[in-house]
Amino acid sequence: MYGLTTNISWRGFDLSCLLQGAARVSLPVGGSLVHPFDQQGSVSELLYNDHWTPSNTDALYPRVYTQPQGRNTWYSSWWCRDASYLKLRNIELGYTLPLKASTLVGIESLRVYLAGQNLWTWTPNMKEEIDPEAASSNGQYYFQQKVISFGMNLTF
Predict the structure, then answer these.
(1) How does pLDDT run across 134-150, given as a tens digit for each residue?
(2) Measuring CA to CA, how many Å separate 93 from each of 10, 12, 49, 59, 124?
């Protein structure tokens, strides 16, 4: 795990951000990517569009079997993905009104800001849209929510 926090201010503006990541992490891809048609499951579009066939021998994914006990359910190291990542966890840009200007309008201080959480994720080799921090890659977990907010700190 690693992280980097920055806090910069200049002439009433302030910027803070948190980058966080992990290296040397692997995640086995599971669920419909590995087990299409198993347990009445379906095939993901990604697997369907780029699986091995006699006419598509350079495919990204192996052959898809339609039998319930087909070879789709056999795990192998081929299904392990490099789950190293770098995420922009938080970023906030603010502006504080100068003291002279705020006292003119009868307030002690005013700061406005725009903030975001989980706005960007980089992973080196994961073609599947899987959150590298998910407890499982079987399709039961969504990516962390992206949040954008605007706010104001006002002191009278």
Answers:
(1) 766 555 566 788 999 99
(2) 11, 11, 41, 44, 28
